Every structure is written in structure tokens, then in C-alpha cells.
Amino acid sequence: MSLKVTPVSQCLEKKLKFFGFEVPDLLFILFFLSIINFIFSGFRWKLFLVWIPTAILALVLRIGKHGKPDNYLIHKIKFTFQPKILRAFPEATDFKNPPTIKERGI
User: Fold this and answer.
1) Which residues pair with 22 in a beta bridge?
2) Are 22 and 58 in contact (CB under 8 A)?
3) Which pTM does this prediction carry?
4) Dihedrals phi, psi of 17, to nearest 5 degrees
5) How many CB atoms lie within 10 A of CB 83?
């Protein structure tokens, strides 16, 4: 009786990348492209007003994220807009100082 063996990919945790960009980065670039295309759709120089800024954005993302961890852009946006102080409970609105012992005249 022999042991049954099936081949398995050794790279199960490899991130999905396309041209070196992660999926959120590609979505950000394509969203930027669509907004710029919507704004400048009627201009004569559409090629330069739409594609050149998008290519520059992609290049800046590619160079700026070099050496950064996965999903860096998502975490950067999340922690930029998140409040700097996180509390477990909301602040008390009806706070009263605790009673103190009044000093008696001696």
C-alpha cells in the first residue's frame, strides 16, 4: 500500500498583482482615470489631459509604494481620516465633580 500524493502549489499566500500593482491600487488608478475622463471628455487635448496625469499617478504609486507593506494605500487612507484618539466609551455629557468634604472653620 503506497501513500497517495497530490501536487499542491507552494505559493498559497501570493498576493494578486497585475503589472506590479495590487488590486486596490488598480481600482484607485482606474477611478482617477474615469473621473478625469468625465471632466475632460469634451476637450481637444483629451489625450494629454486624461492619460498623462493617470500615467504620472501610476508611476508615483509604483515608486512611492516601493518597499511598503501590502495594502499600504488602504491603511494610509484609513488612518488619515480616522480620529487620532479612540475611546472605548463616548464622552460623558452630564459629568459632575464628585462630592468633597467641606472644611469646617477651626
Assistant:
1) 17
2) no
3) 0.61
4) -130, 150
5) 6
Q: Are 49 and 36 in contact (CB under 8 A)?
A: yes
Assess contact for 38 and 87: CB atoms under 8 A.
no
Give per-residue pLDDT as tens, 18-60. Answer: 888 888 889 999 999 999 999 988 888 888 888 999 999 999 9
- Residue located via cell numbers 507552494: 10
Residue with cell 463616548: 90
* Cα(27)–Cα(105) distance, integer angstroms: 74
Q: Indicate the length of the chain as a whole number.
A: 106
Q: Looking up cell 499617478, which residue turns up?
A: 57
String of DSSP letters for 73-100: HHHHHHHHHS-SS--SSPPPSS--PPP-
Strand partners of residue 17: 22
